[in-house]
Amino acid sequence: TLFKTKEELLDKLELAILELHSYDVPEIIVLPVEGGSKSYLEWIADSTKF
Length: 50
Description:
The chain has two helices and no strands. It is mainly alpha-helical. It has one domain (7-47).
């Protein structure tokens, strides 16, 4: 599963994954966004809660 979030929400997302995932050590990695469509990146910024 791929999650998209803002940097300031990363800790909240990680806690939720650790709480809900069946693995003892789920893979959680962060990949920087180097660019993308302006409208899509704005949508991500406006839509993320985790």
